[in-house]
Amino acid sequence: MSDIQSNISADEALQRLREGNERFLHGEIRLAGQVREQLKGLEHSQQPFATILGCSDSRVPPEVIFDCGIGELFVIRVAGNVFSNEIAASLQYAGAHLHTHLFVVLGHQNCGAVKAALTNRDQGEVHRSRIQLLVNSILPGLPPFDPGLSPEERTTQAIESNIRWTVQQILDTPEAQLRLKEGKVRIVGALVEIKTGHVKFFD
Ligand SMILES: [Zn+2]
């Protein structure tokens, strides 16, 4: 377990992610062919510059869409980028031991987990037992809909709300409150557009 202090500020980390996503969008991948080389020197420690809580969906791998290599991102992936005690523990590890200052909750368009929560709430569909458990953790963050919205607009709004709901739950933890008081940490939501891979940061 390493306690190297990260020198990378939250703002600088966010800038790196934006630039990585730009490279990805323009097909200018920085690390092609060098991934194994990056393992050198990492056998005893790691110093990722950001922590990502993303969805497990196969179309949104954070390292790829941010053009980051081995050792650069601390990534937690779970369907629907939901919050739980185990996720909180991983986030706390990233903050306390790896000293990342930036935490990103990364949702995406057409998220199946959020859609499952919508069919549960609005159409009464009950999912298989463990999937329903996951869905239950999404339900409290779903917004009431304006009746004028199209189904697509409702899904988009629900996905954005789910990202903000996870951000809010992280913000509400005592450890996040403590670290935010220090003024170094940022917790931001972001949305991946599946068709292009473009990441829109909420802040
Ligand atoms: Zn998803």
Descriptive terms for the model:
203 residues, alpha/beta, Beta-carbonic Anhydrase, Chain A, five-stranded mixed β-sheet, globular, binds zinc ion
Overall CATH architecture of the domain at 10-111 and 171-201: 3-Layer(aba) Sandwich
Fold-level CATH name of the domain at 10-111 and 171-201:
Beta-carbonic Anhydrase, Chain A
Strand fraction band? 5-15%
State the distance separating the first and last CA atoms. 32 Å
Radius of gyration (Å)? 17 Å
Spatial order of strands in the largest sheet: 2-1-3-4-5
CATH superfamily of the domain at 10-111 and 171-201: Carbonic anhydrase
List how many beta strands DSSP finds: 5
Provide an overview of this structure.
The protein has about 200 residues and is of the alpha/beta class. Helices cover about 40% and strands about 15% of the residues. The chain has a domain at about 10-110 and about 170-200: 3-Layer(aba) Sandwich (Beta-carbonic Anhydrase, Chain A). It is built from 7 helices and 5 strands, in the order H-E-H-E-H-E-H-H-H-H-E-E. Helix 4 packs across helix 5. The model has no long low-confidence stretch (mean pLDDT about 95). The protein binds zinc ion (ZN). Zinc ion binds near residues 55, 80 and 113. Zinc ion (ZN) binds near residues 55, 57, 80, 112 and 113.
